[in-house]
């Protein structure tokens, strides 16, 4: 029997000091509707949000050479505290993931087109930070990996699910999900406030977090990370908290 769907898009993060729960908005309230019928691939390298820093690969064919961006790492937001949405508790912490069979589950409930496209760009074996959001102290608590690439999110067809979408059709589903598996806890909790301090410093001096989407597109529940961003944030687990 499937367990209740967990809403990830509520995990919007603000860089303000007040708790997320007071200011978070669902991604459904501000959907990027013009993205709906566009390519399922994430946007190309001209974005102001730092796309140009992401790794690029060259694919050659008889017609010439095409440059594509590869997404190596991710940040996934989920709510660790109970909250009812249409009568369903959308809580899902990293401890809940660890309690799942084989410490694996599907990442459902995403209802924003850009976040969906990021889901569809994920590749087997890629790692992501598990980020607790919409709570008193948001931040990174662990690492997961992608163990199944994007496939249709079944909750879009379930009328009893809070993420039901009556406009989606089984022959052409709008929404996708991936399967993730617990890898490990970070050696310590890495709070949003600490990451933000580094972001502000790097924004001034050109460090690796200068364009981190956690602050430039903070309301997205699925966010890509450059190799440099991932490595720098991971290095923080070795430091003593300030």
Automatic annotation (TrEMBL):
Transit peptide in keyword set: no
Bias (Basic and acidic residues): 10-28
Biased composition annotated in UniProt, kind: Low complexity: 41-52
Name under which the protein is recorded: Thymocyte nuclear protein 1
A single GO cellular-component term on record: nucleus
Native source species: Chroicocephalus maculipennis (Brown-hooded gull)
Keywords recorded for this protein, A-Z: Nucleus, Phosphoprotein
Region of interest: Disordered: 1-64
Localization per record: Nucleus
All residue ranges annotated as the EVE domain in the record: 73-235
CDD domains reported in the protein's UniProt record: EVE (cd21133)
Role noted for this protein: Specifically binds 5-hydroxymethylcytosine (5hmC), suggesting that it acts as a specific reader of 5hmC.
InterPro entries: 5hmC_binding, EVE_domain, PUA-like_sf, THYN1-like_EVE
Gene name as annotated: Thyn1
Pfam families: EVE (PF01878)
